[in-house]
Amino acid sequence: MLTSQWKQDMALGVPAIDEAHEALFDELARLAQLADQHFSAAFRKLIAAVERDFREEEDLMEEIGFTSLANHREQHARVLSGLHHAWAAVDEGDLAQGRHALTLLPQWLLFHQATMDLALAAALEIVQRQSD
Question: Which keywords fit this entry according to its UniProt record (predicted)?
Answer without folding.
Answer: Iron, Metal-binding
